[in-house]
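Researcher: Please translate sequence to structure tokens.
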Amino acid sequence: MAIKHTIKFKNLEPEERFRSLVENLIAKLERKARNFSPDPLFLTASIDQNKVRTLYQVLITMEVPRKTLAAKGESHEIEAAIKDAFAEIERQLVAHKSRLRGEHLRNATRFAASQKF
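Model: Translation complete:
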């Protein structure tokens, strides 16, 4: 399943290496979301440069069934900010899939059973 996405660059020129890094990270998310559902997934990535402090800010929102995931990455290195934001959105996606499968309930039951004397 392909994730429909939009990439926005603010206050900086969209260099091909940044665009390809984002595309590669989206492809990694697509592999994680492969067995998700037939519903389309939407992702918006906004990459902004604060020229005064040379700080890069990456904001990502991802629409998945029953939830909107959001992540933010900030760094003085653009690649680090992009990778941080995508790592967070990937973590949230895995957690959401786990919750939809009911794994949190099974884990809670196991934990409660192990706490009985």
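Researcher: Any highlights?
Model: The helical segments are 16-32, 78-101, 103-115.
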